[in-house]
Structures are given as structure tokens and as C-alpha cells.
TrEMBL record:
Subunit structure: Homotetramer.
Spans traversing the lipid bilayer: none
Residue ranges of domain Ketoreductase in the record: 6-175
Family matches, as PANTHER family: D-ERYTHRULOSE REDUCTASE, D-ERYTHRULOSE REDUCTASE-RELATED
InterPro entries: KR_dom (IPR057326), L-xylulose/Carbonyl_redctase (IPR051737), NAD(P)-bd_dom_sf (IPR036291), Sc_DH/Rdtase_CS (IPR020904), SDR_fam (IPR002347)
Record-given protein name: Short-chain dehydrogenase
Family to which this protein belongs: Belongs to the short-chain dehydrogenases/reductases (SDR) family.
Keywords annotated in UniProt: NADP
Listed GO biological process terms: glucose metabolic process; xylulose metabolic process
Biological source species: Aureimonas endophytica
């Protein structure tokens, strides 16, 4: 898959899956526009890839829209930024619930609105990948806000896929299982919990960021021209186990 000459916006490109995706896209010829929060991550990514950097807190709707407008025009979009808070159902706070929905569900919608408006105005085709999670499909203890925010993102993805495909923009979701990134350390550092999850993954390991990035690139590429509205597990078979 060759992305030479393509300008690709990647949110959450500072760490983890987003960073792996940005690096892979750059290796395959793309000009990456990185939208993320930490300036230090943007600086190192810029040095490694020559990407364009936009620092933004995606929990802030107005700032997100302004950053998305700055990032356009783009050929392709990856909504990868995400966050989590571990709280039991009974202890889930309104603040955490709202924050996770702002970052995981609302921000992808806002960035995609700006992306799609620009593509449609130009009469240009495009593709969006929203990074969801297996947590959108199953209830994971201590992940009420996260599961809800990712299931909500899937709803956004499906509506986008129906409304935007007639305008030439395909929209798909990827649903990783535990992937070895800073977020996974936060959510899965308890060895008992991690072992329980691992036994349910038939391939016998957690995902690496590049495992997910490869699937994202496929869904962005013209090789997947007939794939639209898909929720694609990248889970080693977790969902069928
Ligand atoms: P990481 O925590 O490793 O990286 C997340 C990236 O998103 C960071 O660059 C982070 O920036 C950025 N980000 C988070 N919050 C904000 C914010 N408010 N504003 C701007 N940028 C923000 O996460 P992963 O790579 O693990 O996760 C990437 C995506 O994959 C997420 O959507 C996640 O939900 C999903 N996912 C991850 C799984 C896993 O096991 N790792 C499993 C399934 C899905 P900063 O560090 O500066 O906050």
C-alpha cells in the first residue's frame, strides 16, 4: 500500500497506535498531519517523519474544531486519539463519563465533519478510519464510560458510512483488543486481569501497535474500495472465543 502524495490527518499520533500509524504512513510516502496533546510527542514525531504538528486538547470541542480546520485539506483521516478511566460501574463519575465521551466519541465526529465538508466541497473522494475497541462489543468490568464511548463512536461510524459513501467517502472502524501501548499499561497492568483477557485470545498474545496500524492503512487504501461501514476486530479471535 503506497500513500505517496497523500496528506493524512492522524489524531492521537503522539503515542501508541496513533504514533505507529503515523510512522507507517510516513514510511509509505504520506504527509502526516499529527493532531495530539503533548508538545514533546509532536516534536519527536516531527523530527522522525517531517510531519505537520497541531497541539490540541480534544476534550475541548471548540479547540478541536479550530484544530481540525487548520489541519485541512486532507486526503484521508484516522481518528485514533482516545483515553480511559478505570472505575467500577457504581463508582463511575459523571466527570469521567463526560470526558471519555468528549475525547472518544465527540472529537472524532467534529474532526470528521471538518474533513468531510472539505472533501465534499472539492468533489474529492476520501476514507476515514475511526479507532474503536472490542470494548464497544462487550462489557469489560471497570470500563463503563469507555465501553459506552466506543459503542457511541460505532454509532457515529455507521451513520457516517451511510451518509458519506454516496459522496465518495468510505468510513470504517477498527476494534483492537489489548494493544501494548501506554494506555494498555494503564488499563491492564493487573496481571490477574491481563491473564484472564489473554486466555480469551486464540492467537495467544496481545496486539502490537503495528498489528493495528496495518489494518488501519488497509482500510484507508484503495485496496479496500468496496469496504464501508465495517467494524473490524483486530483481536486475534477474541470476539469468537
Ligand atoms: P495511548 O494512550 O498510547 O495514546 C493515545 C494518544 O491519544 C496519545 O498521543 C494521547 O496524547 C492522545 N490523546 C488522548 N487524549 C487526548 C486529548 N484529550 N487531546 C488530544 N490528544 C489526546 O493510547 P493507545 O494508542 O493505546 O490507543 C489509541 C486508540 O486505540 C484509542 O482510541 C484507544 O481507545 C484505542 N484502543 C486501544 C487499545 C489498547 O489496548 N491500547 C485497545 C482498543 C482500543 P497524550 O498522551 O498527550 O494525552
Amino acid at each position: 500500500m503506497d500513500f505517496t502524495g497523500k496528506r493524512v490527518v492522524v489524531t492521537g499520533a503522539g503515542k501508541g497506535i496513533g504514533r505507529a500509524t503515523a510512522l507507517m504512513l510516513a514510511r509509505r510516502g504520506a504527509k502526516v498531519v499529527a493532531l495530539t496533546r503533548s508538545a514533546a510527542d509532536l516534536e519527536t514525531l516531527e523530527q522522525e517523519t517531517g510531519c505537520e504538528s497541531i497541539a490540541v486538547d480534544l476534550a475541548d470541542a471548540e479547540a478541536t474544531r479550530a484544530a481540525a480546520r487548520r489541519a485541512m485539506p486532507a486526503d484521508l483521516l484516522v481518528n485514533c486519539a482516545g483515553t480511559t478511566e478505570l472505575q467500577s460501574f457504581l463508582d463511575t463519575t459523571v466527570e469521567a463519563f463526560d470526558l471519555l465521551h468528549a475525547v472518544n466519541t465527540r472529537a472524532p465526529m467534529i474532526v470528521a465533519q471538518e474533513y468531510a465538508r472539505d472533501r465534499i466541497a472539492k468533489g474529492a473522494k476520501g476514507a476515514v478510519v475511526n479507532v474503536s475497541s472490542v470494548a464497544a462489543f462487550v462489557g469489560i468490568p471497570d470500563h463503563t464510560a469507555y465501553c459506552a464511548s466506543k459503542a457511541g463512536l460505532d454509532g457515529v461510524t455507521r451513520v457516517m458510512a451511510k451518509e458519506l459513501a454516496p459522496q465518495g467517502i468510505r468510513v470504517n472502524g477498527v476494534h483492537p483488543t489489548v494493544t501494548l501501548t501506554p494506555m494498555a499499561v494503564k488499563a491492564w497492568s493487573d496481571p490477574v486481569k491481563a491473564a484472564g483477557m489473554m486466555t480469551r485470545i486464540p492467537v495467544g498474545r496481545f496486539a502490537e501497535p503495528d498489528d493495528v496500524a496495518e489494518v488501519i492503512l488497509f482500510l484507508l487504501s484503495d485496496e479496500s474500495a468496496m469496504v464501508n461501514g465495517l467494524s473490524m476486530p483486530v483481536d486475534g479471535g477474541y470476539m469468537i472465543a
